[in-house]
Design goal:
The chain has 149 residues and is mainly alpha-helical. The protein has one domain (20-133). The chain is built from seven helices and no strands. The longest helix is centred in the first third of the chain and has 19 residues, at 20-38. The termini are far apart.
């Protein structure tokens, strides 16, 4: 028998699928990271400096859609997302939608949106949501915090 380990045509063994609980834990951690940078002008500026080809104001809207669009939010349930955290997500979504209506379709660069009323409203809503989520903090990326009985 020959060893095909280095052969590019040898199929790789896929990792087993993760549970819904673990998937939600990872999404929850991403959402916390999102709220951390959206809630802080300093973090926003750091993000912009680290990735200058990205428009950070656009990322605030696009990343939300990646992790918490309307069709995804319904999957964020207990025990990973507490009732208070679910409400915080809905509250933030309402502010994000209202801020989107109050900003131009083509968002200006970060320094031009910092200090505007819609951006400040979004930043404060992210800070409020972050406060709710940090009551329990982040969860493990690899181990279920809430194993099935």
């Amino acid at each position: 028998m020959t060893d095909d380990a280095g052969n590019p045509q040898t199929p790789e063994v896929a990792e087993p699928p993760i549970s819904g609980i673990l998937l939600n834990q990872r999404c929850r951690n991403h959402i916390i990271g999102y709220f951390e940078w959206v809630s802080s002008h300093e973090e926003q500026r750091g993000y912009q400096a680290a990735v200058p080809y990205v428009r950070v104001p656009n990322e605030a809207f696009n990343q939300w859609d990646d992790y918490a669009s309307d069709r995804i939010l319904e999957h964020y349930v207990e025990p990973v997302f507490s009732v208070d955290e679910q409400q915080a997500l809905r509250n933030y979504r309402a502010v994000l939608n209202s801020a989107a209506e109050d900003t131009p379709q083509m968002l200006p660069p970060l320094e031009q949106v910092i200090g505007t009323e819609p951006w400040e409203r979004l930043r404060l809503a992210a800070a409020e949501a972050l406060e709710v989520f940090m009551r329990r903090g982040t969860f493990d990326w690899e181990v279920e915090q809430f194993p099935a009985n």
